[in-house]
Specification:
Length: 79
């Protein structure tokens, strides 16, 4: 997951002199992919289809919360 985050961060999205809908959608999808990958890495448990071999079990004590993400900040978990 760490490698995926690095790859996403290193991508240079094409720049357009007149950005249109497709350009904005591409940037939004890139942002969403990065947020999902960062959240998955922060959630140190397995739950549903989110399985991690390094944390194979569900952890209700620490992770029955929503993931909160903000640009340039660490992921945190809200109740």
């Amino acid at each position: 997951m760490g490698d995926a985050i690095k790859q996403l961060q290193s991508l240079e999205l094409p720049k357009s002199s007149k950005p249109g809908r497709a350009d904005h959608e591409l940037r939004n999808l890139h942002t969403l992919a990065l947020l999902i990958a960062r959240s998955a890495l922060a959630r140190e448990e397995s739950r549903g289809s989110h399985y991690r071999s390094d944390f194979p079990y569900r952890n209700d004590d620490d992770f029955t919360k929503h993931s909160a993400v903000q640009k340039s900040k660490d992921i945190w978990f809200e109740k």
